[in-house]
Design brief:
Layout (H helix, E strand, L loop, with lengths): L25 H14 L25 H8 L7
Helix pairs in contact: 1-2
């Protein structure tokens, strides 16, 4: 088994339900967060091989929030 490295982690700010982020669904919120991380250029996009993503209250309409977030973001679709 190859060793892994966690470069960094982020999370969205805590806000009350139905307020600041009410117009965003989990995928669009994730897209903004991922694209914001990529803009910081702290790690080359070509080095990103896997994405571990989750949400506190799973949406039954989403099969995989991680996959949907990658497809919506600037990340390579093979991640």
């Amino acid at each position: 088994m190859r060793p892994i490295a966690l470069k960094q982690g982020y999370r969205t700010p805590f806000v009350k339900q139905g307020r600041e982020f009410s117009a965003l669904n989990p995928v669009s919120l994730s897209k903004h967060l991922i694209d914001g991380m990529l803009e910081k250029k702290e790690i080359p996009e070509s080095h990103i091989q896997h994405l571990i993503w989750g949400m506190v209250m799973p949406d039954p309409n989403l099969y995989s929030i991680a996959r949907e977030a990658v497809l919506a973001s600037r990340l390579d679709k093979g991640v």
